[in-house]
Write a structure and sequence with these properties.
The complex is a heterodimer of chains A (346) and B (340).
Chain A (H helix, E strand, L loop, with lengths): L11 H27 L15 H8 L7 E5 L4 H6 L3 H8 L23 E5 L6 H14 L5 E6 L6 H13 L3 E7 L2 E2 L2 E2 H4 L1 H4 L15 E5 L3 H16 L5 E6 L23 H4 L4 H9 L2 H11 L5 H24 L15
Parallel strand pairs in A: 1-2, 1-3, 3-4, 4-8, 7-8
Antiparallel strand pairs in A: 5-6
Helix pairs in contact in A: 1-2, 1-12, 1-13, 2-9, 4-13, 5-6
Chain B lengths: L4 E2 L1 H15 L3 E5 L14 H5 L4 E3 L4 H13 L3 E6 L9 H8 L2 H4 L9 E6 L14 H5 L5 E3 L4 H13 L4 E6 L7 E2 L13 E4 L4 E5 L2 H15 L4 E5 L2 E3 L4 H10 L2 E8 L4 H13 L8 E5 L8 H7 L3 H12 L16
Parallel strand pairs in B: 2-3, 2-4, 4-5, 5-7, 6-7, 10-11, 10-13, 13-14
Antiparallel strand pairs in B: 1-8, 6-12, 9-11
Classes of the chains: A alpha/beta (346), B alpha/beta (340).
């Protein structure tokens, strides 16, 4: 839907940048996953990976200008990578080390980088949506021409916080774009089991109608399609016309999170719920065949935007970068026990 | 000519207006705030500062609190009003899981300079869902500050400090105090959080009272004075941070303590205060610390029932006597009160 009123069409270098960012997210998440096997015990608690969402994340973030802001969910590793946050600090945070982005106080679910506009996450489904709305309210009051992206999953749209926030944002015409990453699963419940629109065969974007804002559904496996849809929404928000709900349909390629087990029991990532719970191996295989990362690479190569040699060189560079992140995380010391009570009050 | 009298509501209104004049980052949002709200605490603010900074919100307590948190994280200083503390249940996820933890989880990168104003307390024949005192829940959450003013001057000064504070502060007013006539404010200067206030000196028993119970304690102290007992009355003013030291020093002198709040006694903030007091002053105590609070029941509607339910000066007076006349130990017989 590239149109003449879309001046920010992605040029070749920007497309290669997008591909590189997608690779970086994929590689980072692979390193997190492999940590469970290669370094047992280094990660406990809960990690949630963004593999499968790379195109959606990069396409959406490519629309932002400097000073724009975003908030997201506990599945939060992808966004800061694109914004330029140091992956070494991110990995160290996931490992609970002093060199971590938050000094080991936040962990996998709570990465944050306000300097780069990444205003935080919520580990409580849907409850970050009002805060992103509030960041947009601050932007509106201060008239700084900022737009806020608010990321959440399909499951979050059944929380009251979703409805309350979209009502407020539409009423106040706040500069916010709600990006719903619909990965079809609420942990191990399928979306049509818990969503009235999905059960009726309608896209979840129809929820926008209840709040008198535009709602669009886009192929979240295609970074350019996501870019174009979010770009239009961002432009609308920046012009003062209020929010848009963008439903980005994608397929989470890993399970919801690592297994939960008592101390001492090694953790790992189980099979995807489609296979493990629903016995739908073919669904999962089809999703793997549509994997957005190789899909975008093939498209760039076919279109002559990127040659295979350069693509391989980028991949090698990204592997080194993320290997260094693991190394840094492992080498970073744990905080001192006495520091457990720091940062309670500013 | 300046008014000679004011009220808590007027003091809060004046403090809000002053804060908004001094700092354009200060904004006010909540249900009906642009029209002043049901108690007129925000009256006139929209006229002076505009409806962008004094923003009426839908009846969405959770999201409104979340919006205020987001705005605070982005650099504003929101003062959000939750009309009744009973409705804070709808905003607790935002307060407890988000406002209280953002600074901590981010390793100090984020801060939430938010004030959540609300009001509680029984006595208005308003029934079980518009009369509660729920401050103990909030004081249990690391990362939140909890303020409970007992007078107009304290309300104005503490609110100024709360707005200037870089942390989320829950500011719990009491509807029974809103329209009581009090001396006009002499200043709108901030009053530091975490400073207890001794309202009356005495060497026989220490009364630690919160919010409306401060006035009730003063009434009880007057009655005791008529009987020859000198009660000291201390208002902590803020539950978090708690200024324990002057309370401990007082109890070390009087050796007897009564703690009074309007909230249900079970699990109330008085339990925490009593535990900390006994740990700090165990060797000085001549009697068990007495706690005054509401019975373990919801607030009843009928005037006859609510009056029986709501603790006041009589219960504080009785508790003081229980402390003064504690005969659990032999030597107490020697320390009979000086009657008459």
């Amino acid at each position: 839907m590239s149109t003449s009123n879309n001046p920010a069409e992605l040029d070749d270098e920007r497309l290669i940048w997008a591909f590189t960012q997608m690779l970086r997210i994929r590689e980072f998440e692979e390193r997190v996953k492999r940590t469970f096997e290669e370094h047992p015990g280094v990660i406990r608690g809960h990690t949630h990976l963004a593999d499968g969402a790379e195109a959606s994340i990069v396409g959406a973030l490519a629309t932002l200008r400097e000073n724009d802001q975003l908030m997201c969910t506990y599945r939060c590793h992808g966004y800061p990578l694109v914004l330029g946050t140091d992956p070494r600090a991110m990995m160290a945070e996931i490992y609970g080390r002093t060199g971590g982005l938050c000094g080991g106080y936040g962990g996998s679910m709570h990465l944050v980088d306000p300097e780069r506009g990444f205003m935080g996450t919520s580990g409580i489904v849907g409850q970050g949506i009002p805060q992103a709305t509030g960041v947009a309210y601050a932007a509106q009051i201060r008239k700084r021409d900022q737009v806020v992206l608010c990321f959440f999953g399909d499951g979050a749209s059944k929380q009251g916080a979703f409805s309350e926030s979209l009502n407020i944002a539409s009423l106040w015409k706040l500069p916010v774009v709600y990006v719903m990453e619909n990965n079809s699963y609420n942990v191990i419940t399928r979306v049509e089991q818990e969503d009235a629109n999905a059960a009726a065969g309608e896209p979840l974007a129809v929820k926008a109608k209840a709040f008198s804002m535009p709602g669009v559904t886009v192929d979240g496996g295609d970074p350019i399609a996501v870019y174009e849809a979010v770009w239009a929404a961002v432009a609308r928000a920046r012009e003062g016309h209020g929010p848009t709900l963008v439903e980005s349909k994608l397929y989470r390629l890993s399970a919801h999170g690592n297994i939960i087990a008592p101390p001492g029991v090694p953790l790992h990532f189980p099979e995807h719920e489609a296979v493990e719970v629903f016995g739908a191996a073919e669904e999962y295989e089809a999703a793997k065949r549509g994997d957005p990362v190789p899909r975008f690479r093939a498209r760039l190569v076919t279109d002559g935007k990127l040659d295979a040699e350069r693509a391989d060189a980028i991949a090698a560079q990204v592997r080194d970068e993320m290997q260094a992140a693991v190394r840094y995380g492992l080498d970073s010391p744990f905080p001192e026990p006495a520091d457990a009570v720091n940062h309670v009050y500013a | 000519m300046a008014d000679l009298e004011t009220t808590v509501v007027k003091a809060i209104n004046a403090a809000l207006a002053q804060a908004m004049r001094d700092d354009e980052r200060v904004i006010v949002l909540g249900e009906d705030v642009a029209q002043g709200g049901p108690y007129q605490a925000t009256a006139g603010l929209a006229g002076e500062f505009g409806t962008e900074r004094v923003r009426n919100t839908p009846i969405s307590e959770g999201a409104v609190c979340g919006v205020a948190i987001g705005a605070a994280q982005a650099g504003l200083r929101p003062v959000v009003e939750i009309m009744f503390i009973d409705f804070i249940t709808l905003a607790l996820d935002q307060l407890v899981n988000h406002a209280a933890k953002a600074h901590f989880m981010s390793g100090g990168q984020l801060s939430v300079p938010l004030v959540l104003r609300t009001q509680g307390g029984a006595g208005g024949r308003a029934g079980a869902q518009h009369s509660q005192s729920l401050e103990a829940w909030l004081a249990h959450v690391p990362g939140l500050k909890v303020v409970m003013p007992s007078s107009a001057a304290d309300a104005a000064g503490l609110l100024a400090s709360a707005i200037a504070d870089p942390n989320p502060v829950v500011f719990v007013e009491n509807k029974s105090l809103y329209f009581r006539r009090e001396p006009a404010l002499t200043t709108l200067e901030p009053l530091a959080l975490g400073r207890a206030n001794r309202l009356r000196s005495g060497r026989d028993v220490t009364m630690v009272a919160l919010s409306r119970m401060v006035g009730e304690a003063l009434v009880a102290a007057e009655r005791l004075a008529d009987e020859g007992f000198a009660a000291e009355v201390i208002d902590p003013r803020t539950l978090v941070p708690l200024d324990l030291e002057p309370i401990v020093a007082s109890v070390q002198q009087t050796r007897r303590a009564v703690i009074a709040h309007e909230a249900v006694r079970v699990g109330g903030f008085g339990a925490e205060l009593a535990a900390r007091l006994q740990a700090a002053a165990f060797d000085y105590l001549e009697a068990p610390i007495q706690r005054v609070g509401a019975p373990f029941t919801p607030v009843p509607l009928s005037p006859a029932l609510e009056d029986a339910y709501r603790p006041g000066s009589e219960e504080i007076y009785q508790a003081a006597h229980a402390a003064l006349e504690w005969d659990g130990r032999e030597e107490l017989a020697i320390r009979q009160p000086r009657r008459g």
